Protein: pyruvate dehydrogenase (NADP(+))
Organism: Lingula anatina
Amino acid sequence: MWKAVTSKAVQAPLRCRARAIDKVLLRQPHRTWRLATVEAVRPMASKPEKSSVRTMQTVSPMPNLVENNTRDPVPKPKAEAAYAAMDGNEAAAYIAYALSDISFIYPISPATSMGDHMDKWSAESKKNIFNSVVDVNMMQSEAGAAGSLHGAVAGGCLASTFTASQGLLLMVPNMYLLAGELMPCVFHVSARTVSKHALSIFNDHSDVMHCKSTGFAMLASSSVQEVMDMALVSHVASLKSRIPFLHFFDGYRTSAEVSKIQPIPHADIAKIFPYEAQQKHLKEFALNPNEPKIRGTGQRPDIFFQSTVAANKYYLACPGIVQETMDEVYALTGRKYDLFDYHGSPTADRVAVILGSASKTLEETVDFMNRNGSNVGVVGVHLYRPFSDEHLLNAIPKTARKIAVLDRTREDGALAQPLFMDVNVAFSNANRQALITGATYGLASKEFTPEMAVAVFDNLNAENPKMQYVIGIEDDVTHTSLPYGEPITTVPPGTKQCMFWGLGSDGTVGANKEAIKTIGLNTNLKTQGHFVFDSHKADGITVSHVRFGPEEIKSEYIIQSDADYVSCHHPSYVEKFHQMLDPLSEGGTFVLNSPWTTMEQMEENLPAIFKQKLAKKKAKFYNISANKLAQSLGLGKRINMIMQTAFYELSGVLEVDEAIALLKKSIEKAYGHKGPKVVESNKSAVDAARQSLKRIDYPASWAQATEGGKRGEHTKATEFVENIMNPVLALEGDKLPVSAFEPGGHMPIGTTQYEKRGIAPQIPVWKPDACTQCNYCAIVCPHAVVRPFLLDKQETKNIPPGFEARRAKGGSEVSGYHYSIQISPMDCTGCEVCVESCPDDALYMAPFDEVHEKYRPHWEYAVSLPEKGEIGDKFSVKGSQFQKPLMEFSGACAGCGETPYVKLATQLFGDRMVIANSSGCSSVWGGTATTIPFTTNKDGRGPAWGRSLFEDTAEYGFGMKLATKKRRRDLRNKMLVAMETCKISDELRGLFQKWIQNMDKNDQVEILAPMMEALLLKEMENQPDLVKVYNDRNLFRTQSHWLIGGDGWAYDIGYGGVDHVLSKGENINILVLDTEMYSNTGGQVSKATQLSTVTKFAASGKRQNKKDLGMNAMLYENVYVASVAMGASYNQCVQAFKEAESFDGTSLIIAYSPCIDWGIEMKNMMHEQKEAVDSGYWPLYRYDPRRAEKGAIPFQLDSKKIKGDFEKYLHGQNRFDQLFRKDKSLAEGLHGSFEHNTLHRHEKFQKMAMDEVEYLEYLKALHGEELSTEKSIVLYGSETGNAEALAGVFASELLRRGIRAKCLAMDDFEVDDLPKHSTVYCVVATCGQGELPGNCRDFWEQLSDKDLPSDYLENTRFAVFGLGDTSYVFYNEAAKKFNKRLEELGGKRILNLGLGDDKDEEKYETAWNEWCPNLWNELGTPPPPQELLPPTYKVNIDTTGEISAPTEALTPAGSKIIPLTKNVLLTPPDYDRDIRHYEFDLKGSGMTYSIGECLGIYPHNNPEEVNQFLGDCGINPEHTVTLEDTSGRKEPLPPVISAGRLFGEVLDIFGRPSRRFYETMSIAASDPSEKKELEYILSKDGADKMKELVKETVTYADLMKKYPSAKMPLDYMVDHVPRIKPRLYSIASASEMHGDMLHLCIVKDDWNTPSGKYREGTCTRYLQHLSRGDKIDRVAGKINAAGINIPDNHRPPFVMVGLGTGLAPFRAFIEEREVSRQRGEDVGEMALFFGARYKRTDYTYGDELEEYHSNGKGVLSVLSTAFSRDQAHKIYVQNRISEHPEVIYDYLVKKKGYFYLCGPAGNVPPQVRKAVVEAFVKCGGHTPEEADKMVTDMQIEGRYNIEAW
């Protein structure tokens, strides 16, 4: 218990603070030291009388400054002062500007706007009190700002900076230096939470409390007015004391609160400015070679300590100096401050001590309590460091014996919080007895309200008061919270309280700020405005809390009750936020913006709970269709003026006529600079709004309403969504207890799919008959709400009513499918980017309320369909969009330019991505709790996402990459060890070897990973080295590491880390979302900002060129670099992502990302990108070091030609155009330089893309020399990238054949240059119905010029190949046009037009492969020779019968021959699955088994098929084959065996052939057609054919039959056909129950190939036909060690999870324990969670299980089944586990039981693990990390076992 004591043991180390000494050291000009009295530098001012009542006058926040550098020795208090409305940040900046020579700024919320003001005033040449313009400098980071400030002060300047949170922490090293060197300066801090388990931009004092040991004086403000006054105190006192000051105030609560305050005129500021101290304490210490000195030396232990303590006298003097300065401010303003301000009863018995804005809430509460009989007070702390115990104790009444100290910070692990500790020490030092309690409150802007304050005081009077506690939350875990009561009203009488529920970007907040200023500055009312936002970048919830009243407003908390006016600005809110009515007072006014204009519509759409609240509160209810009205008035989404009119009309704050007059006057002020037309239109909006406002006279029966509301229930969401996310989204997160959260900050992904905001006023609607199915609408959609779907025939039959689908257009891969574009109505933001980007006019916008109910079930049906990402090429524009976006429904701004790139990356690589995300916009829309847009695919795999700090993203991601690399390297070593030490199958050994060879090849390890996992499970029992490999199975697959962030990170604060990563060459991908400004903090200048841009922190236009990050990266020469702009070239963007990710090294993609802060319409976002590229503003290029390795130029300029108007592009964006409006001459100069630089850069890039020959040609042309006459060019017109890719391949093939040819998009080539080329090859696609691709239209226009002569191309030969689709009327029209026109101009056709057809089996490649050889025939090229490698077996066939082959059963190594005694079908005959029960007799075999082990069975091939194959090969099955291994294999093939048995029992001739086998066949084939076909299959062009063969499960035998001329010799056959491997099956019996009998439960593996051919799995077919009837067959088998661990006794409980035939081993477990139980042994509990599709068909052994369960009385304690398809919604085993958390925790943790899972691999094991972890968390109170580690420990101990296949 904390209270002051007198024990010497306690007091000994707590020496009392010495009284302030009155002498300080001053540095004199003659460089000698002398003692001087404090009075010499801080003249005392007499305490003035309180000022008289002030009259209100409007004043500019930055008035004209005076040149007066003198002040009265004894200032007089002012009698009058003017008023202004401003927020806390502006108040701080106002003083900082007045008292700074120089300022260093860097954006960070919520401090950013202080820098904005400084930069703006500097750009406007405003003067400070010294009649000079402040030099304001944007730095690259907060560390840079602090370092520069350090230098500026060392140079003798008055300096200031502004920051918060992590930004302040970056300044800490320099803060120590500044304080240690006694350098006066001021840091103004909008106090903000320091990121811990999560980032929070909201307020507490954790950042400033971190600085308490730096030596800075720390001065706190608690209101906007105090910010103004304390800022002045800080600047003045810092100079007087020589101590640097940290002036702080609560972020957002104070920094963004708009209040009516009294600014201090600069003339008055000048009166108290300490000019003498400035000279002596600052300028005379400046580093100057004329008076040289040195600072910052290095000191040894002998003197450092003493030097540190030498400064103590300044800290002892500081409190007195601060108080003196406060008195001077009092003399100027009449506002009295003390170091510790006391408010309350002079004889209070209970006192609270607090810092910051909550002190005002306490003052209000103290007044309320004292009026009601209490005797309490509050001390508000101003000067926190140096902490003056004397001043604190003097402030607290002597009568106070109970003290509550409240801290707005939390030091985890500390004995107590900082202020609490300081107060305790102060009381202890003074031997003053008191009960002192400590409270933590308000972290991350958690509200501190009057009822909480009452609870704090009441606790002091409790019989057993809580000594240290938290207030404002419910801590139901460690029980440290203090309960508090219901809301109470403490605001002064006459205060009007108004709440506005707005939609982000609708103008509500801005309008309310304007209303505060308008009303506050034109009336005698006090004003206050506080604004609450959710975490969406735009279109989120905003709640404005606005108060007006005749008395000072101290209510530093949101409106909780007695609201006079509440307005709802979006109709969807009535469903989601019915609590908005809770604060409304009885009879208060409620205004709704909705399209519901009739009572019937209100009845239908208002939820019952909403109606009840309205009626019970007897609210005056008004409605206005603001969105419809705004649209009709041309205001778009901006409904602010309409809703403000409603406020002025109905709120009662002012008389209506007066209010409307003021509103119209404010319109003139706000919009006057935009011209009279805009002013009048807004005034018209006011008049129209008044007429449209309608009173809703609802019936009294609404108080008992039970119906209403149309949003309905969504699909059942996850527990996290239901219990955490939904309350948070409903703005009721404050009600969640501590136990609801997982410590550590981890959040599940994929939660935005449940949000369903429904905020778009309009959504796109698809017109299927106009659609060409290009998928552009999907790739551009920022929120992944527009998606293409492919439906098979059955899916098409099941579509809901109205669902539109059309036959899929394209090649054979979409044959049989229907295509549909679907939009998610509830997730769409209405940005219109898809509509504007559609080349076919196949989308239009429709009102949300008219269409969303129709289209919502369509979307839900579409997303329920199986994913079909395997169809088509995912690295094409179209194919990429059939991949599920693993980033969806983010909270980004409507039309965001960043999200399409990240969404695309997740579509291409999302299941492997590890993302280190920088702070910024992308971290807000990508990682805001609880709405996470990153999600998983059907396999449960998706992006793993993490954020560290703004400045260290590159290092953070680099560390993750190195960790992965190290762990995978270790895994490789573990495999090598396991192959040496463990007994493993050949199959597993082979997989290990393949993995080691291909561990970094994703396509290879994707195949190997599940195979290795399955075999490891079967083979790792009792083999620890294999277990080690298995435990690292999540590293089998490659990971794709990405660093993602904006330009503020990559170009500025994080550039050092980015550059370091670029230099290291690791396989890391960097994606820079380049908005060319700090978008997240409001649009500040960065090094990516272009020359002449007007933006925040560059208010007069940026004067420096943009840093070329791409060029910097290319200098390393081993970095892949791409510059992309999706809207300019979708294909180039997709290819850049593909190339970057596949590059084995560091890659950098710089993505042009339009931002709403540019001043553009975001619906045109993609068009803006195209215009940027066409004008040369933004280059498209790719720099690929791999090209250099092949002898090609690594740099490819994809935007080869500038085609647009540069100046026009700049004028289209406000960020450039506004400079013209400000200073046309300056703008013209800067824009001219900008255009010149752009042209120079383009020319440089053109040269970089040239090879030596091209560069020589360029130089010749430059000097007028004669050029080569034989020149070839490959031109393409490509929309989706297919034609471009084909043209590139063709150009490479030309080069390989000795023909040099450039490859260019047609629009990048001048028609004038065509005659200079002897040969022109054109590859051109056709879009839609005969349309030209976008990158050849300009070229066609030039080529179509009628003035071109008919002999224009008489010396030019040409060939044209087209890519089209015969399903279109104008098939290959574009190619036909070019072919015809080139001939019309005199060109000589080399061969006929080639027509590629997407409907062909191999799409356009079918025709290409016919056309291209004809071209080569014209040009002539022979193919290269090929040859076979020698075989590794010497094989002979004895046809004489001299050699006898063994007849006994073949027994593979380690196996035995055992009889199969029973073969029983378990499933109904009509079921499509054949599940069988097999019994094997092991008697006499020497084989024994235990539960958990597997039986490996060696199957035989079908004898009939074997004989047929051998007959086709001309081999007699009875002939003997001898085989001699020449390669030293460990287990060679049998040396002597019959041909029939070799191919029937040894070689997997009916297995899937390897590519090597195809190659061998192609070489061996003597038939030219067969050889050609085989070569084709092996070629790139034959990839689809190869896939088809694989899908058809073509076998080795099939291939040899298909291509008989190959006549593959037998020695090559045995070399290339692998041996049959055993198939392992879990044993389903216990030997204790069945003796020598061994049971298996196996489902038959069979399928139909795409062609309809029926296929069967080799082993299940083999077993199915054995031992039918009375016949007993024998098989080769072996017992495989258990892949799971079994305890030595039966006492530990078992938790078993079985899926389908995965039940098999658990049947054995149960049987064994049943036998033990019957013997009377102590048997532990058993819980079985069984999952399958249907109970009727799949519940194998169901009767047995039910009997073993016996309602919990049997050996099977818990039996929980999950038959996923027996009900409408699917239920899985993990769901059942979640229903029994207490069982899981009891069995596995309390009783140290064992966990087993047996079933399919994939998503099930991690989901089950997650359920187990959650059970541990829920029942054990563990953190998720602890729980997860517990599972890991169980694995290590062998108690957590998974067997998956």
User: Anything to note?
Assistant: Confidence is low (pLDDT under 50) at residues 1-79. The domain at 1269-1419 is CATH 3.40.50.360 (Rossmann fold). The first strand starts at residue 23 and ends at 27. The two ends are 59 Å apart (CA to CA).
